[in-house]
Amino acid sequence: MQKAKRRRVETRHRPWPLSQRPGFLIRRLHQIHVALFQEACGEFEITPLQYSLLSALAVRITADQTTLAADIALDRTTTTGALKRLAARNFVERAINDEDRRARLCKLTPAGTTLLAKIEASARAAHRATLDNLSEREQVAFVEMMQRIVAAHSDHDSASAIFD
């Protein structure tokens, strides 16, 4: 009788191992990628988020902060802070939008364009290093699976999440 009770309790309260939880693994993979990015791109003193912003601006040429926030899937407040830091280093211009005085239009400065060109090879190396334990076929499949997951949950973001 005692043994049967103990078995039920153990089964009911058995923890889900972290190594099997997608959320935990995704967070760890992100931490690993950020570390690899810093190793490869540390000399440029730029974060992966700032690199994403510079890359998005290079594609758009000019964009308001809200559009850039959507492009990189980040809340507007965090995006604005990162853009301010990039502007302080003269990599981005933030001008008041004549059509909407509340909005700021952003574009790369010549220094920002130069930085983006210099960091590109190192940033790509960091991305490759993140996946280097997978075969080429597995890398393609993994990226495709991540794209499917992101597309399927595009209406969810962390901006509305509640944290402890």
What does this entry look like structurally?
This protein is mostly helical and 164 residues long. The protein is 62% helix and 11% strand. The protein is built from seven helices and three strands; from the N terminus they run αααβααββαα. The protein has helices spanning 2-12, 22-41, 48-60, 65-71, 76-88, 110-130, 136-152, and strands spanning 62-64, 92-97, 100-108. A three-stranded antiparallel β-sheet has the order 1-3-2. Strand 2 and strand 3 form a beta hairpin. Helix 2 crosses helix 6, helix 3 (48-60) packs across helix 6 (110-130) and helix 4 packs across helix 5. The chain is globular and about 75 Å long.
Set down the secondary structure blueprint.
Blueprint: H1 2-12, H2 22-41, H3 48-60, E1 62-64, H4 65-71, H5 76-88, E2 92-97, E3 100-108, H6 110-130, H7 136-152
Antiparallel strand pairs: 1-3, 2-3
Q: Which descriptors apply to this entry?
A:
single chain; 7 helices; three-stranded antiparallel sheet; mainly alpha; 164 residues
Shape: globular
Largest β sheet strand count, sense and barrel closure: 3 strands, antiparallel
Percent helix: 55-70%
Task: Tell me how many strands there are.
Answer: 3
**What percentage of the residues does DSSP assign to strands (E)?**
5-15%
- Measure the end-to-end span: 41 Å
Q: Average pLDDT across residues?
A: 88
How big is the Rg?
21 Å
Query: Order of strands across the widest beta sheet?
Result: 1-3-2
Please identify the structural class as seen in this structure: mainly alpha
What is the chain-wise order of helices and strands? HHHEHHEEHH
Parts with pLDDT < 50 across at least 5 consecutive residues: 160-164
What's the number of helices? 7
